């Protein structure tokens, strides 16, 4: 197996290439993102400018911004950051029926101590259950895409309702990297197709959908923008975790995004055991290039199991029971043909055509250049059309 000389990306990743020095295109993407979004003095300056814009937009209103919270370290610390800079956020949480008790308590502790209002959007569990089962039957790698899509849709929905112009999200490319699009791409059009084809006919009444027209309406007409503070600030996850534990009695939940039990199943069981996909290769490689850990340490962590066999099997059994999947149906799903994100219809090509044609309008949606745009240039080799 060929491994990138600068990280632990390897040739199991779709679309990966290596230059004469053994540096992968994924490594070059990471380096380019770090150049385009420097931290330090410039990053702080860019962030403080955004803070002033948020405060000006929120003048006379109850809230300046929305912060999506999951009980994880990134979103919990983001509430701390927002408070430190004098912002008045509304914390928004999505309940998909799989939030761990630790995550729920973490959200309560941080919002209570900071006196931040919390709004939890609950998706009818019968709808959520049917969608998640449909994604498993569809045989795609990232079966937790419905949760990701619902989180984003919920924040836009509430922003529209409350007249809030800014959404803060805890994504950090320096610790998360960029997953191959074949593994994780998803949108509302694809979700509706998969649910119709593999679902049980349940109508989606409470599940929030951010369709492409709704996204355009929210960005262009309502002026709602997506902000990623960690693109600009000197955020160090381990230090943030230590601080949260000391100041808020925040509790650790284990692995990356394991605050949600279905996400834990998807990342630690479904992906590695059914598809041979280890998303840690992306996360750890990003952390190597950002200086958070050494390449040798990343290799060591990759050699360790996600969890004990017993814990993983217990997580699988919990998901089967909660989704009401019999052992026979789960076995049928497990043995079915593996697909990727582009085996089903989506708006992927249309969105990039729009981005190419109307590139100046991207600033109406984001405070940053979306990593998917840069990935398309660096990994897929397309021309640099968006700035």
Automatic annotation (TrEMBL):
The organism's place on the tree of life at top rank: Bacteria
Q: Which NCBIfam families match?
A: WbuX
Please report the name of this protein according to its UniProt entry. Answer: Uncharacterized protein
Origin organism of this chain? Runella rosea
């Amino acid at each position: 197996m060929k491994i990138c000389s600068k990280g632990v990306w390897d040739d199991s990743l779709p679309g990966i290439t290596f230059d004469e020095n053994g540096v992968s295109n994924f490594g070059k993407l990471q380096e380019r993102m770090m150049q385009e979004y420097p931290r330090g003095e410039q990053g702080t300056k860019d962030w403080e400018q955004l803070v002033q814009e948020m405060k000006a937009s929120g003048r006379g209103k109850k809230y300046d911004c929305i912060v999506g919270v999951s009980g994880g370290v990134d979103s919990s610390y983001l509430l701390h950051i927002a408070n430190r800079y004098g912002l008045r956020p509304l914390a928004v949480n999505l309940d998909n029926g799989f939030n761990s008790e630790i995550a729920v308590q973490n959200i309560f502790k941080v919002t209570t101590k900071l006196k931040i209002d919390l709004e939890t959007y609950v998706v009818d569990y019968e709808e959520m259950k049917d969608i998640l089962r449909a994604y498993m039957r569809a045989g795609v790698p990232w079966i937790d895409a419905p949760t990701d899509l619902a989180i984003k849709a919920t924040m836009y929905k509430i922003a529209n309702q409350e007249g809030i112009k800014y959404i803060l999200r805890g994504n950090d490319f320096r610790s998360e990297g960029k997953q191959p699009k074949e593994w994780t791409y998803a949108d509302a059009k694809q979700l509706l197709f998969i649910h119709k084809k593999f679902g049980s006919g349940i109508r989606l009444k409470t599940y929030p959908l951010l369709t492409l027209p709704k996204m355009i309406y929210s960005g262009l007409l309502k002026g709602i923008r997506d902000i990623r503070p960690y693109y600009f600030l000197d955020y160090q996850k381990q230090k943030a975790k230590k601080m949260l534990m000391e100041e808020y009695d925040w509790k650790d939940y284990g692995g990356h995004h394991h605050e949600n039990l279905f996400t834990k199943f998807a990342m630690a069981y479904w992906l590695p055991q059914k598809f041979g996909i280890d998303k840690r290769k992306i996360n750890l490689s990003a952390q190597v290039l950002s200086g958070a850990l050494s390449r040798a340490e990343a290799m060591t962590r990759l050699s360790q199991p996600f969890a004990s066999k017993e814990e993983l099997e217990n997580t699988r059994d919990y998901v089967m029971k909660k989704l009401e999947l019999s052992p026979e149906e789960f076995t049928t799903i497990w043995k079915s043909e593996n697909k990727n994100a582009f085996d089903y219809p989506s708006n992927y090509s249309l969105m990039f055509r729009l981005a190419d044609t109307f590139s100046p309008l991207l600033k109406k949606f984001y405070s940053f250049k979306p990593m998917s745009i840069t990935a398309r240039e660096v990994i897929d080799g397309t021309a640099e059309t968006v700035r």
